[in-house]
Model the fold of this input.
Amino acid sequence: MAKNAPGRPNEPRTSVKAPLIFSAVLGVIAGFFTMIFATGGAAKALRWDLGLTAAGIAFIASLLVVAVLTMSTKENPEHLSQGSGVNRVSAKIPGGAGSVKPPAPPEPDNDADRDKEPDDDGGAPRA
Done:
């Protein structure tokens, strides 16, 4: 069996029991209420098919949400931030940010352009 390296404290273990129980409870609640409310009255038969469908959907959806939230809290290992420094600056990467040229400065306005009258006829030829 694998053991932790000497000198390192044991990391807390995450269990899958709590998310499974939580999702199962939500599935049972959703299935029960769907079965009751989908019946449409006291004189009609219970809708077991809709209740089981809603229970399955609620179970899977809640388990998915719990799994995503659990993964989002996991810290990255420290060794991922270490490296040799190759291509760590985007300006040095071929085709990266260093190869982008700054925009050209705007051209100055000519005074001759201001003296012209604007075409108000939408660009139609003058007769």
Observations:
- Helices lie at 17-37, 48-72, 111-115.
- The chain has a mean pLDDT of 77.
- The two ends are 95 Å apart (CA to CA).
- The CA atoms of residues 39 and 46 lie 5 Å apart.
